[in-house]
Amino acid sequence: MYRVRRGMDKGEWIPALLREKLEQNWEDSKWKDKAAVNKRNRRSSNGPLHTCGSIPTIEHSKRLKTDSNMTPSCWEVYLKTHKMKGDPSKWVSSKSQMVADEYERRIFERNSQQTEGDDVSNDHQSDNFIFLDVVGGVDKKGRIYGLGTEAGKYKPSSSRSSDGISPSEYEHMRTAISKMSAENMELKERLKTNEELIRASQEESRLAREQAQQSQEDSRLLREQFQKLMESFTQDHSHLPPYQPHRSS
């Protein structure tokens, strides 16, 4: 459209009726005033605002979703639209660089506070909260820096806004919950260890009782065998004459 408006392209590919309306719009004073304001804003900004070009942010978001089969996070959309095309290591402006540095610092801080076994299923959502907090959330015009037309997808829900919980407060609560979960896990491990010790002690007592019972049974059998032996000995010698002591003549 820029080339058509500047006369570099005759715009023959545009239907005549639509081209006529576009030309009328470009000549309208309100449109010219708005274009002039946008031009001044671009000149006063520290470099371009994004690298979307003619592709709207919503289209970049759709492509990211198609590639990963998941709704992209704020950060993923931001990366796609604020990195220099020719040099992905550079950001489009110093402001975008500052936002990226602060976001990555906050993510690193969050991850370093997580303990092994933490539930990370909500990290994707948590990342969005951190990003919104870094860029200042929703401005007075209902926009979010760096998200363009996709801002509406990532605005905090009305229920969260009415609760007055900011992303930083959410992260604080999440950290506290993670800490309590870790303490609960440690307590469960201690209880488990105590239960195992109790079971081991009970098993030792059971074995000791069984050994004592076995010893008693062995003693009983020995007594019975001895008694039978004595009875047998008595029967075998009952026919012998009484003992007569020898008398000298």
From TrEMBL:
Instruction: Cite the InterPro entries for this sequence.
Output: Probable_transposase_24 (IPR004252)
The protein's name in its UniProt record: Putative transposase, Ptta/En/Spm, plant
Ranges for the region named Disordered are 29-57, 148-168, 201-220
Listed Low complexity bias regions: 157-168
Pfam families per record: Transposase_24 (PF03004)
